[in-house]
Structures are given as C-alpha cells and as structure tokens.
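Q: Hi! New to this. If I give you a protein sequence and the SMILES for adenosine-5'-diphosphate, can you show me the bound structure?
A: Yes, paste them in.
Q: Okay, here:
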Amino acid sequence: MKHPAANPRSTEYALAVSELRYRRLFETAQDGILILNAENGQIDDVNPFLTDMLGYSRAQLLGNKLWEIGPFKDVEASKAEFRELQREAYVRYEDLPLETSAGKAINVEFVSNIYQVNGDRVIQCNIRDITKRKRAEEKLKAYSRQLQVLSRRLVAAQETERRNIARELHDEIGQALTVIQLNLQAILHAPETETISPRVKESLEVVDQVLEQVRDISLNLRPLILDDLGLEPALRWFTKRQAALVGLRVRFHADPLKHRLSLVIENECFRVAQEALTNVVRHAHAKTVTVELRKEAGKLHLRVRDDGVGFDVGAVREKAVRGASLGLLSMEERAALAGGGLELKSTPKKGTEVHAWFPLKWQPPVTEPPSS
Ligand SMILES: Nc1ncnc2c1ncn2[C@@H]1O[C@H](COP(=O)(O)OP(=O)(O)O)[C@@H](O)[C@H]1O
Ligand SMILES: [Mg+2]
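A: Thanks. Here is the predicted structure of the protein with adenosine-5'-diphosphate bound:
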C-alpha cells in the first residue's frame, strides 16, 4: 500500500506540500521570523536569518521565554511588550533597539501578528534589521542640516554684501557724481563759456545717465526703502517700478499690519517678490500683474500673479536642477529658510502664480527712551 501522503489528491499530500512551502519561506526569508507561544511567551521557532542577525544559535533560543534571551534582556520592558503582543492582534514597533550576542547595538523594525493554530494561539514576529537604513537616514539628516546652515549663511552673507555695495554706490559714487553734476551746471551758466558749452552739456547728460544707473543698481541691490519703511511700501514701490518698465497694469493689495515684520521675514519676502516680479517683466508678456500680501490663518501670504504666457513648471524645474537657472530654486530656498514655503502654478497661455507663505514674526517693539 502506498503512503497516503504520496497520493497527490489526498489531504495529507496537500498538507505536506503546504508545510514544505511554509518551511521554505521560513528558512529563506530575508527578515528574521520568531514564533512565540502566545500563552507563555516561549520561543517555538526561529528562522536562520534571525539567528544570524542576533548571533545566537537556534538551540540557545528555542524553549526560552522572549525576555530571558539576551537581545530582549530589558526584562520589564519586554514583559510589558509581550503583554501588549498578547492583547493586540497586530503590534508594530518602528524602531526597537536590540543587542546581538557579540554586544553590538542594532535597530530593528518589529511587527507581530497573533493567530490560532489547532486551537493554540501563536504570535508571529517579523524582525527587520534597519541599522544600516537608520544610519544612512541619520547621515542624510546631518548633511541636510549642514546644507541648511550653509545656505542660510550664504544668503546672509550675500545680503550683507549687497547692502554694503548699495550703500557705497549711493553714498560714495552717488555723492561724487552729484558734485560733478553741480559743477558742470555752474560752468554751463557761467559767462563767456559759449565755446565749451556743447562739451559741458554732453558731460552733464552722461553724468545724469550714470547717476540714474547708479541709483538703479543700488536700489536693486538693496532698496533702502525696505529698511526705512518696511515690506509693504517697498513692495508697492518695487511693483510699480517694474511694471512701468514694460507698461504692465498693476493690482496691489496689502492687508494692514500693526507692526513691522521681523527683518528676516521682510527681507526674504521682498526677495521672493523681487524675483517673481522680475520674471513677470522678463518672461511673461503679461497685461496685468497682481501682487497680494495677506494675513491668513496666522501666516503671511505673498501672491504674485500674471496673465502672461505661462510655462511648463516641471520641465523648467528639471532644467533648473541641472543648473540652467537659479531664480525659481532661490525663491523656494528663501521661503524655506524663513520657515515658510512656496508653491508655483503656471498654465501655458493663461499665466503664472507664485504663492509664498511666511511665519508672522514681528520685530521687537522699539522702546522709547525715557523722557525726563
Ligand atoms: N512669470 C513667468 N512667466 C513665464 N515664464 C516664466 C515666468 N517665470 C519663470 N518663467 C520661466 O521659467 C524659467 C526659469 O526662471 P528663473 O529660474 O527665474 O530663471 P531666469 O529668470 O534666470 O531665466 C524662465 O527662463 C522662464 O522660461
Ligand atoms: Mg528669474
């Protein structure tokens, strides 16, 4: 008589096949698997991957209670955790610290399910070594923090430099040119200068142009109005000035603010608007530009919208990452550095909207000197 398990249609045969499949899965799994008796916490089975991971032999583990073995040696915590495993059908610890037999600290992701086998409750724990992943994540976090510090410093250094150059242009070169301008005007109006007056006139025109250029460069570098009067007047002024360059219609709205915003917020918001408006002038071919500065949901929202040609944001962003242009990236970077964010929407033939938001941080109030 044949053995029943050899008959392909018998239940025993099906069971044997199923058992074989389970065994192979169990033996070859690339995660650690631990089978516990749900009543007493005794280890009923471990797969080779787990014995390798923990550095214990199968014999050292089988028959022991979960909290009796080295890796789970923090007995009280393990007992409490075991009670939780017994109670809950599904438990997941995202990051559990364990120790291997060699004393190496590892981190695992621990997932357990509870189910019935022949009336016995069994807990199956899947244990994944995430030590490498965690280290890589920590490294990445450290790099990203470093990068953030660096770009913050870079932005700050750039701002200081710009302010210095702007001041020098305005104070030194501007002053010198003004002196020359006044002298030339005096010479022009002095008696007996008919022969030299065409030259003087020409020089005056050149000086006027250069003065205008110096003012423009200085303003673009660092508008003094931003320091002196704050974000709203600076933004209103800059919008009008840019729009006038290409004959754009302007819609400007700013919610009234009781105090001056912190210097960082004023600065970063202005710079984002400056880049967005420069892009409208340069690329959009728009009729109207709308600039809004609103206080919504505890944040400051800047929206710069145009009805111009629009563009494919994805394609441009891809190019930008390869170093083609920096404007869009620097807007995002500045908004993020100030603790806010930025969203860019553009529809070809319809127009573009830059939406940036910033935390509402205020400048400390100026304390009046005590009056005597
Ligand atoms: N408001 C806009 N309207 C149309 N195209 C725009 C607008 N803003 C940006 N773009 C497109 O996105 C590209 C990248 O912008 P940006 O990063 O500021 O670089 P740059 O202004 O130096 O070209 C622009 O070259 C342009 O093609
Ligand atoms: Mg640009």
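A: The longest helix spans residues 131-189. Let me know if you'd like me to explain how to read the tokens.
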